[in-house]
Amino acid sequence: AAWWPAEHTLLVADAHIGKAVSFRRLGVPVPEATTVGNLDALDALLAAYDARRIVFLGDLLHSRQARDAATLDAFAAWREQRRELELVLVRGNHDDRAGDPPPSWGVSCVDEPFTLPAAPQLALCHHPEPRQGVYVLAGHLHPCTTVGRGIDRLRLPCFHFGARVGVLPAFGAFTGMHPIERTPADRVFVVADNAVHELP
Fold first, then answer.
1. Which residues pair with 56 in a beta bridge?
2. What pTM, to 2 d.p., does this model score?
3. What are the beta bridge partners of residue 186?
4. Other beta carbons less than 10 A from residue 113's beta carbon
5. Does residue 112 surpass a pLDDT of 70?
6. Those residues with Cβ within 8 angstroms of residue 68's Cβ, 6 or more apart along the chain or in another chain
7. Residues in CB range of 126: below 8 A, 6 or more apart
8. How far apart are the C-alpha atoms of 121 and 124, rounded to whole Å?
9. Residues in CB range of 71: below 8 A, 6 or more apart
10. If 123 and its partner were Cys, which of 14, 109, 113, 127 is the partner (CB 3.0–4.6 Å)?
């Protein structure tokens, strides 16, 4: 996630709530309790920062199959304890298929680009596509990069900032990763052991 202090806002990309249950409904054996893990991770961020708003940069729900009673109830219970928190979803490609969250969740759903009045030069999107006159922050790609060599290599999620578009790593506990293509001018920050490190 990214923390925007001036706006008391957390930016979260690609939570993919309910992805594991979607796979299990198709007969694929995958881990359980990923929704609870995602909500615990959100709680850790809320405990660490004075957040008054979370903007989800697309793909909040993974699919229509994610609308399992246990998944919906877990998020609803989490939300009920945090009614003062503003939640905004910038619709992504998975949201198109899953549909908007239940109205009881109190999530404002908007199409991209989404801007806040205090920073009209920053476009919050799901798809990492350049837009005229703004800097785009997006998700969708689940970016990662490799550090180390030989058998000591690690694939790590990363923040990837180009000249006109920045891409956040996937937040969800059960998501894949896609290697980035970096240019010399890009800035890349890897996530490892709950810390963020800029790569040279």
1. 12, 89
2. 0.88
3. none
4. 18
5. yes
6. 18, 21, 25
7. 13, 57, 58, 59, 90, 91, 92, 93, 95, 112, 138, 139, 140
8. 10
9. 17, 18, 21, 35
10. 113
